[in-house]
Amino acid sequence: RVFASGTGGTAGGGIGGGGTGGTAGGGIGGGGSGGMAGSGGTGGGPNCEAAAWCKLATAPLSAAQTAVNRSDNSVWVAGKFTQAITFGSTTLTPAAGGSWALLHYDVNGTLLGAFKTADGAVESPSIAALAVDNAGGVYVFTGAFSGTITLPTSTTPATLTAGSTGESADSALIKLDSDGRYLWGFSFKTSDNGELVPGYVDASGSRLALAFKIGSSVQLNQVGVGTKGTGALTGDAAQQGDVAIVVVDSGNGAFQWAKSFGSTLEQTPKCVALDSSGDVLVGGEYDKTLNFNPGSPGAELGSGEEERRAFTAKLAGATGAHTWSKSFGAGAYTETNVLSCALDSSRSDLFLTGRFNSATQSFGGPAITNPNVGDGLSYTYIAHLSNAGAHVYSAGAPYFAASIAGDGAGAYSVGSLQSAPVDFGGGALSGTVVAKYSSTGTHQDSQALAATSSVGISVAVGASNVPFAFRNSATPAQTEVWRHQP
User: Fold this and answer.
1) CA angle at residue 188 from 182 to 191, to 5 degrees?
2) Alpha helix (H) ranges present in 137-242?
3) Where are the domains of the chain?
4) Bridge partners (DSSP) listed for residue 9
């Protein structure tokens, strides 16, 4: 095949800010590529071969979070910035403590909007999690903050004020419209010297679910547009943290229910999702014991001495009542953790990925063997469970997985190789790798997106099972958006 050659246009001041593409080469095709973070023009757009991963955009934001709208495959990127940045004709200027930017791209990487969504009077918090719904609502779960966050609305700016004292700090849940304007929100007020670790957020239908870790009592202080309620959660302040789950109405932020689960050691949620019926699925890891149905001692998940186990649980979306819960581990002095989990594209089955350091590990099916155990190293697993918690498949993976997403036919997993290249079957790969597994756990395809590893990476599946991958790098601070070409 022959591809066009040509020089890209003049660099722009930001994404999509460049000039026109270069002159078409003598072969088949058009002008050069451009429009990415000011590195080229807008004439050719991303020059992507069919059935290959293609970088659609580069967003100069620090520690950004990402989300994909499953209805139209548009991509949202939200993160913090401390210096003025320009996107096309839009320049965003931060407050003294930094501000948030919210970027919206279509499926082809065209910038649809760039918004400054918050200023911090003391210090603008980081964005810990991001979710979007099919109607264009954007949900931001913040890191800890003190002082006041100022948010734009269609009229007078709104504020969220931290209410904690002592050494503690608050987090917040905020809903924005598709233009980055504040609709409603509430802060999480912790007790003095308490702990609240922001976690994960998922929006589906009329519900919004949060999962996070708490170390003491937490009060939900809701403010903004719509009818609100309040709620309180109590964790184990004397120990290392409990699992907290909060469900609110995604339309107006009205409180529905909140529950905490834990024991005398550490319990940490690592993901939360709402299935097609609006029920809550949560995954994570724990030490000692964990019971999602405290009234039934027989439902308690146990562990061995000095053992950390992975857990998954399903709770009724309307009430938080226990439906089922499972744990996975290999006995005393072993560790099985969860790094990421996600539902498939029909929002039914659950995919998990993480690491285990035992010789073998089972998720309800055939045991996975750890080839690294002789070196004292852990091994990556991928597990597929049905909506009822039954084992569908599980397999090992020869890299350090960071994220997983399910489509209608299997699972996509993203990993960052930290040592020697690994051959998945199509040649040795290193750096940031995306791998596809079939519905039975068989490796189908893998590709390196970049030659070097990244600070943080994730994967998502949008409409028509189109997969996306994201990379966060520290130097320079930026987020890359990749898409697999249909």
Assistant:
1) 155
2) none
3) 1-47, 262-453
4) none
60-to-85, 225, 338, 404, 472 alpha-carbon distances in Å: 8, 32, 29, 24, 10
Angstrom distance (rounded) from CA 485 to CA 483: 6
Q: Tell me the three state secondary structure of residue 298.
A: helix
The DSSP annotation for 160-220 comes to EE----TT--BEEEEEE-TTS-EEEEEEEEEPTT--EEEEEEEEETTEEEEEEEESS-EEE
> Helix, strand or coil for residue 297?
helix
**Type of residue found at 345:** S
Confidence of residue 224 (pLDDT cuts 50, 70, 90): very low
Omega prior to 476 cis, within 30 of 0: yes
The enclosing H or E element of 397 equals: strand 391-397
Tens digit of each residue's pLDDT (9 = 90 or more) over 417-439: 766 788 876 788 888 889 999 88
Whether residue 130 contacts residue 65, with contact meaning beta carbons closer than 8 Å, is answered with yes
Torsion of CA 304, 307, 308, 309, to 10 degrees: -40
- Record the tokens describing residue 255, joined without a space: 């409180």
> What is the C-alpha separation between 147 and 276, in angstroms, rounded?
38
For 193-218, the pLDDT digits (tens) are 556 677 788 988 899 999 988 776 67
Phi-psi region of 74 (alpha: psi -120 to 50; beta: other; left: phi over 0): beta
Q: What is the pTM of this model?
A: 0.84
Cα–Cα–Cα angle for 417, 342, 399, nearest 5°? 15
CB 44 within 8 Å of CB 22: yes
